[in-house]
Amino acid sequence: MNEIIKILSKVDGGNILDAATGKGDFINTLKQHLKSFTQIIGVDTSQRCVDYAQKIFPENNIEIYRMNLEDMQFEDGYFDTVCISDALHHIKNREAVLNEMLRVLKPEGLMLITEMYSDGDQTPAQETHIMMHHWVASVDRLLGTYHQKTFTRQELQDIVKKLPLKKVEIADFYVPVDDPSKNCPALIRNCQDIIKRLQTMENTEAIIAEGKELMERIKDIGYAGACRLAITGYKKK
Ligand SMILES: C[S@@+](CC[C@H](N)C(=O)[O-])C[C@H]1O[C@@H](n2cnc3c(N)ncnc32)[C@H](O)[C@@H]1O
């Protein structure tokens, strides 16, 4: 986690877009660790997430809107900083969304991308996170929600290489976990709820079996957040 804190602690964020804000977890990280900011605007297509995030951020300088990132209602160059955290693999039209994020970013403005990756040196507990993520993504796809497997480290670098950014820096980080068994009861309950839902659907035997194996792994090995990349770069003029 230190790397992302180190990066944020040097940033005067100004007007910030948090793209695909979900329930606002990354807004909390921004609020806590940025050197300074003027305003944070979180955008998501999910009404449930927007309602939740609007409730937990009563501050006047934090606003949450339901909006599609492919077509945002902000002027060109409106933001000093644009962020997207742990969401690239949820975005169907990734190129369109990244282009739109760059449109609303002012020239020389900062783009920050954080995303977990699925390869490299991960502990067995981190491998559990990756496996759980892949299982949940398969369930989401079965239910009709776009959710891809996480990218590899190289795939993320290749995505960023295509963007018109300069001074690109890439740092690895993860959230250290003292006790990999700590969150296991909640994760197992989460798996059980998903399995209950799958049991009401046809042809789900294989994915249910996968979920049960995953629950055993969570009990045996535990869980820790996988490694992530923090990528920063400045929009070319
Ligand atoms: C894993 S969540 C985001 C997590 C969040 N950034 C955080 O730090 O906790 C992914 C989010 O992407 C949103 N999303 C996917 N495609 C989108 C789009 N085209 N426009 C806006 N939001 C989108 C989903 O609704 C979902 O809430």
Can you put this structure into words, describing what you see?
It is a single chain. With 237 residues, this protein is of the alpha/beta class. The chain has one domain: Rossmann fold. Helix content is 41%, strand content 22%. The chain is built from eight helices and seven strands. Strands 3-2-1-4-5-7-6 form a seven-stranded mixed β-sheet, with helices on both faces. The chain is globular, with a radius of gyration of 18 Å. The two termini are 31 Å apart. The site of S-adenosylmethionine (SAM) has 19 residues, from helix 2 and strand 2.
Q: Which stretches are low in confidence, meaning pLDDT under 50 for 5 or more residues running? A: none
Q: Count of DSSP E strands?
A: 7
What's the domain count? 1
Query: Can you identify the CATH class?
Result: Alpha Beta
Reading the helices and strands in chain order gives: HEHEHEEHEHHEHHE
The CATH topology is what? Rossmann fold
* Main sheet characteristics: 7 strands, mixed
Note the gap between the termini.
31 Å
Instruction: Please give the CATH architecture.
Output: 3-Layer(aba) Sandwich
Main sheet strand line-up: 3-2-1-4-5-7-6
Please indicate the percent range of residues in DSSP E strands (runs of 2 or more): 15-25%
Q: Give the rounded overall mean pLDDT.
A: 96
Give the fraction of residues assigned to helices: 40-55%
Return Rg in Å.
18 Å
Total count of helical runs of at least 4 residues: 8
The CATH superfamily name is: Vaccinia Virus protein VP39
SSE class = alpha/beta
Note the overall shape.
Answer: globular
Bound molecules: S-adenosylmethionine
